[in-house]
Amino acid sequence: MIWKIAGFLTLPVFLILFALLCEWVDRKFVARLQNRYGPLYTGPAGLLQPVADFIKLLSKEDIEPWAVDKPLFRIAPLLVLALPLTALFCIPVGGMAALASFEGDLIFVMFILTLLVITIFLAGWGSTNRFATIGAARSAIQMFAYEIPLTLAMIGPAIAARSLSISGIVRWQASRGMWTVIFQPVGFAVALIGFLAELEFVPFDIPEAETEIVAGWETEFSGRKLALIRLGQDVELVLAAGLVASLYLGGPIGPWPRLGPLWFLIKAIAVVLLFSNLRALFARFRLDQLVNWCWKWLVPVSMAQIIAIELMSR
Fold it and tell me: Which residues contact 288 (CB under 8 A, 6 or more apart)?
């Protein structure tokens, strides 16, 4: 019991530090792909740049326009950080079982991902700014495009493992001696694409779209609120990478069981590198192109995979 309480106290600090590391990995890798340097001077190879950016935003003036919906405007940054951090307690990081593991925790995490998009919509809508409102509307419409294929991609491993627990899916992969990605490569690809849209990474950065609508739903946020939003986005990146690593790559499963946390970190960083590679390759889609592509291609492919998994499992 004491160890579990200690885990609940220390895990958020560890995950926040890992989230800042993942931001550095993402920025550095994308910069290299685009023939740039990326973070360079703050810390060894710019390793401390995400920390410096967070501290800088905390120290800046927190401007609150008079016309905003103040309750929404104030609580949204807290929720953007708290929601993915809460979901991460359901991801098995150090062993076969997560700190908050229960049958159905996969559905709980899916619910939090949906709630996070709703929070982003309310944050933009509550800003009462024309650019933020457009960004909020784009975020909601984008969710309708990718939510179904992403959900089906996460349900695929659950059907194969006959468990709605993320830890149960990891244990099933350990018992089979192979990762889910080996026999569900389509679901793995759909999950990567879906999480790119969930994270609002290029080519799905439509709700932010700096060249079109300033910063989209984030336009009116500054200072401490923007710092919490940026940190929340880093934590969400870890959540997405951790989900893909757990559902498709075995999570902490590795040659030496005692090094479970290390295997999880390696796999999560590998997924972050995949995200970075994809967002460096493509240009931004239009919203109608995204919706059209998701409904005409991703949804049928995801449904076909679910049917195939069910037939193979019998």
Answer: none
Lookup result for tokens 């709630």? 115
Q: Which of 31, 46, 50, 3 is nearest to 238 (CA)?
A: 50
Residue 107 has what pLDDT?
A: 92
Cβ neighbours for 140, distance < 8 A, ≥ 6 positions apart: 117, 121
pLDDT at 8: 61
pLDDT at 271: 92
| Locus of tokens 């889609």 | 285
8 A C-beta contact, residue 202 and residue 51: no
pTM of the model: 0.88
Check residue 1 and give its pLDDT.
Answer: 58
Domain ranges of the chain: 2-313
The answer to whether the CB of 145 falls within 8 A of the CB of 197 is yes
Beta carbons within 8 Å of 42's beta carbon, 6+ residues apart: 48, 49, 51, 52
Among candidates 225, 240, 227, 17, which has minimal Cα distance to 117?
240
CB 101 within 8 A of CB 20: no
Amino acid 243: pLDDT: 92
Taking alpha carbons only, the member of 155, 67, 66, 84 closest to residue 120 is 84
Give the model's pLDDT for residue 135: 86
Which residue stretches of 39-104 are H helix?
Answer: 49-59, 70-87
Biggest distance spanned by C-alpha atoms of the chain: 60
Residue 217 neighbours by CB under 8 Å, 6+ apart: 120, 121, 123, 124, 127, 132, 135, 136, 139, 207, 208
Q: CA-CA distance, 104 to 111, in Å (whole number)?
A: 11
Q: What is the mean pLDDT of each run of 10 residues along the chain (314 residues)?
A: 61 85 88 84 86 87 80 86 89 79 87 89 84 85 86 90 88 85 88 88 79 78 87 90 91 76 88 88 78 85 85 72
Q: Which of 198, 235, 233 is nearest to 85 (CA)?
A: 235
